[in-house]
Structure formats: structure tokens, C-alpha cells
């Protein structure tokens, strides 16, 4: 195991894996390859260009069972950082914004995203869009396409070099 399964947030990936049987001998270094898999879920939240043109001061919050993660997109950054969360739960979205055309502040009530609980080993790309000019309706796209990530080496025993 690598990481903490109970922690959620940026950089909070949790991996599990198993190794074949191996032996430890005194005064000898043994190399063992351990295949690991991401054991939690992750998501990114993005806002469409249309949404950014229709609203200003956008503040969106993704809610899990135990935590909330707020994202404030701006002209240069329309996508949140990768957030790792516990699988087996539902995500909800709430937020607020100001209509660019008249300065009216609006709030987006907390709404459950998707119809199934989050799966482990899955990246969910959530996009918030505005339906049409004057429509006043948010459109939330939920994509659970898995993306391969390059493997990284991690030294589990840094004191022995």
C-alpha cells in the first residue's frame, strides 16, 4: 500500500499492490517488482468557454461524503487540479456566479453528479457548461474515461541506499 485510503485531495493518490513471494537475506539487496493499481478515484472539474463568457466570478464546489473542494476558474485556468477521492460514493456540485450581462448573482443548488457511485481506478472529467444564451440552465457532462498514467518508481525504504 502507498498513500492513505481515507485522505482526499490534490496529490492524495492511494495505490495497492502485491508482490510475488520473495526472501530477505542478510547483507544483500533484493530487487522486487510490485505491480500496483490506483485504488481510489479522481476527478477534474472544468468550465466551458461559453460558461466563462456568460458568467463572471464563478465559484464551484464539488462535495464528497466527507469533504468539499472549491474551484474558481478564471480567464487562464478553466480546469481544476486532479483531486483524488474515495471510491464508492457520489459527488455533488454547488456554486455561485454573476451574470456578465447584468451583474445579477446566481447560485447553483447542490446537485448530485451522475447516477452511480465512483469506481476505483477511474478518472472522472466533469465539465460545467451553460445551455444557451438566456437559457439559465447548467449542463454538467460526466466522463469516466480512464487515462493511462506513466509508472513511477518509489523508494519504499529510503534509509538504505
Topology readout:
Layout (H helix, E strand, L loop, with lengths): L8 E2 L4 E4 L16 E4 L2 E7 L1 H6 E9 L4 E4 L11 E3 L5 E9 L5 E9 L9 E8 L7 E6 L18
Parallel strand pairs: 4-10
Antiparallel strand pairs: 1-7, 2-3, 4-7, 5-6, 5-8, 8-9, 10-11
Query: Which word captures the global form?
Result: elongated
- Distance from N terminus to C terminus (CA atoms, Å) equals 21 Å
Assembly state: single chain
Low-pLDDT stretches: 132-136, 146-161
Number of strands: 11
Number of helices: 1
Write the H/E string, N to C: EEEEHEEEEEEE
Strand order of the largest sheet: 1-7-4-10-11
Our Rg estimate from Cα atoms comes to 20 Å
What is the residue-mean pLDDT, rounded to a whole number?
81
Question: Helical percent range?
Answer: under 10%
Broad structural category? mainly beta
Amino acid at each position: 500500500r502507498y498513500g492513505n485510503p481515507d485522505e482526499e485531495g490534490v496529490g492524495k493518490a492511494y495505490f495497492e499492490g502485491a508482490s510475488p513471494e520473495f526472501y530477505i537475506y542478510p547483507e544483500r539487496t533484493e530487487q522486487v517488482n510490485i505491480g500496483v493499481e490506483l485504488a481510489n478515484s479522481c476527478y477534474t472539474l472544468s468550465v466551458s468557454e461559453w460558461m466563462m463568457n456568460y458568467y463572471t466570478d464563478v465559484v464551484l464546489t464539488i462535495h464528497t461524503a466527507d469533504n468539499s473542494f472549491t474551484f474558481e476558474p478564471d480567464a487562464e485556468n478553466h480546469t481544476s487540479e486532479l483531486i483524488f477521492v474515495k471510491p464508492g460514493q457520489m459527488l455533488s456540485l454547488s456554486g455561485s456566479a454573476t451574470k456578465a450581462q447584468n451583474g445579477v448573482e446566481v447560485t447553483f443548488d447542490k446537485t448530485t453528479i451522475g447516477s452511480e457511485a465512483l469506481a476505483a481506478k477511474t478518472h472522472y472529467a466533469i465539465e460545467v457548461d451553460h445551455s444557451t444564451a438566456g437559457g439559465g440552465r447548467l449542463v454538467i457532462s460526466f466522463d469516466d474515461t480512464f487515462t493511462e498514467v506513466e509508472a513511477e518508481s518509489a523508494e519504499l525504504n529510503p534509509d538504505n541506499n
